[in-house]
Specification:
494 residues; alpha/beta; 8-stranded parallel barrel; 10 helices; 26 strands
């Protein structure tokens, strides 16, 4: 007998706004994310606009990318921004000691990043160097970017071709300061944040949203110390969590060719995100009950063993249907916590970890994760709608994995988006939904494939892509549909 799930949509009881910034991205100087993925240079045979790939810009604009984090990651705390401005031929070459030991020429710097953000319509989120930098260096970068007066850094920016200041809202004061950003204790970083933050000035009408380096996974003491000692001075506090199928960092598992058990363990471990947000959020509530400080999940996604034959320091991995389910589950979690979670940035945009886009010279493919971002973009800035969901579940690696995951939002015109995921690798399920009498029509799209590790390649770029989904009809406020195994479905209710 086929299992069933039930859902009741509370369309009359709205909740907080699902910030569009939850659909943010992250582009680090790592592997082929920036160089080759985004930046090819003005002399490249690959079609570009001021050195930035046109095909990448087109693909990212289609996602309504709200915010883009740069230049790292671990790279941020060894990046000295002055190396990346001025005439490119005069910029010094540097060795990327974190990621593969490659030499890069600094041709992609502040002006190029800001140009990229303008081309794709995203707000910049810049991460400053605390680990190997100085308060003066960070202060001068903020002045260079946003200063509107007759000052040394603003004048230098004008001399480099940008007369008016940029608008920069989101600014991170260091990255992973508990690890690659300095191996600091929370008490020490709290003092460093207070120090560096003092010199991150607001120039003119530009107002910085200052993001402190937060915790990872279940390191709750870091959050406790930061909120107690520096919470009043920050606007946001970051949180990092990566889904590793095996839970073992030294042997993470393959991105393709994996067994069904790793499909299940990956999705079950992804749901740990809810536990971490809940627990870190409870600590933040203790010091910030009004939720003034946003939780900024500026690194999340899957992390597998590097693709065989590639530089292990480049973190290049294939992206499959499993990653699409991971993205959908994470978004549903972020939606539920949208009262506290104000931004999330998937790691990473191109050619690194759970990427939107993979490139090979002039070729480009869109990944299954890309398609989930595109299918879910109607949730951006929507009003969160509560859902009562009853679904079968199974235990994998001691973790509970519900078969159905769901989330709903309403836009300003009253249209409701209902996103669904069937996590089971082989079993479809009937979903009986009560959606209310206000809706008379439903349409949908589905993302699924025949294999658990189905993925797009440069020879076959459309193996996994959205197709229309016949959701049937709404009758007396009720809807019954069958969700195929291993699928993501997005319904539009009107």
């Amino acid at each position: 007998m086929r299992k069933t799930a039930s859902l009741k949509l509370s369309s009359d009881a709205g909740g907080p706004t699902i910030s569009k910034n939850i659909y943010g991205h992250f582009a680090e100087h790592l592997g082929r994310c920036i160089y080759e993925g985004i930046w090819v240079g003005e002399d490249s045979k690959i079609s570009n606009r001021r050195g930035i790939r046109k095909d990448v810009v087109k693909a990212l604009k289609n996602l309504n990318v709200p915010v883009l984090r740069w230049p790292g990651g671990c790279f941020a705390d060894e990046y000295h921004w002055k190396d990346g401005v001025g005439p490119r031929k005069r910029r010094p070459k540097i060795t990327n000691t974190h990621w593969g030991g490659v030499v890069e020429n600094n041709h992609f710097g502040t002006h190029e990043f800001m140009d990229l953000c303008e081309q794709i319509g995203a707000e910049p989120y810049i991460c400053g160097n605390v680990g190997s930098g100085s308060p003066q260096e960070m202060m001068e970068w903020v002045e260079y970017l946003t200063g509107d007066g007759d000052s040394p850094m603003a004048s230098w920016r004008r001399a480099n071709g940008k007369k008016s200041p940029w608008k920069v809202t989101y600014f991170g004061v260091g990255n992973e300061s508990w690890g690659c950003g300095g191996n600091m204790r929370p008490e020490y970083y709290a003092d460093e944040f207070r120090r560096y933050n003092t010199f991150c000035k607001n120039y003119g009408d530009n107002k910085l949203y200052r993001i402190a380096c937060g915790s990872f996974d279940s390191n709750y003491r870091w959050t406790e110390v930061l909120m107690e000692q520096a919470g009043s001075q920050m606007n946001g506090l970051s949180l990092h969590y990566y889904t590793v199928p095996t839970g073992i960092w030294d042997k993470k598992g393959s991105s393709t060719g994996f067994p069904e058990s790793e499909w299940n363990s990956t999705l079950a471990r992804t749901l740990k995100m809810d536990e971490y947000i809940t627990n870190h959020g409870a600590i933040m509530d203790k010091f910030d009950p009004s939720k003034r400080v946003g939780m900024i999940i500026d690194e999340w996604g899957t992390w597998y063993d590097p693709e065989p034959g590639t530089n292990p320091g480049f973190l290049y991995q294939q992206n499959t249907l499993r990653d699409a389910l991971v993205a959908a589950l994470n978004f549903h979690i972020f939606h539920r916590h949208s009262g506290r979670v104000k931004m999330a940035n998937i790691a990473q945009t191109i050619n690194v970890l759970q990427a939107m886009i993979l490139t090979d010279k002039e070729k480009l493919i869109l990944t299954p994760t890309y398609h989930v971002f595109e299918m879910f973009k109607a949730h951006q800035d929507g009003e969160f709608l509560p859902i009562e969901l009853s679904t079968p579940s199974e235990i994998h690696d001691g973790l509970n994995l519900p078969q159905v995951s769901a989330s709903a939002s309403r836009d300003s015109a009253g249209m409701v988006t209902l996103s669904l995921a069937n996590t089971h690798p082989s079993k479809e399920i009937t979903l009986k939904a009560e959606v209310g009498g206000a809706f008379v029509s439903v349409s949908g799209r589905i993302l699924t494939a025949s294999a658990l590790d189905a993925h797009n390649t440069f020879d076959q770029p459309d193996v996994v892509h959205p197709t229309p989904f016949d959701a049937g009809k709404i009758v007396a406020g009720k809807l019954a549909i069958t969700l195929p195994a291993r699928s993501v479905v997005v319904l539009t209710l009107r």
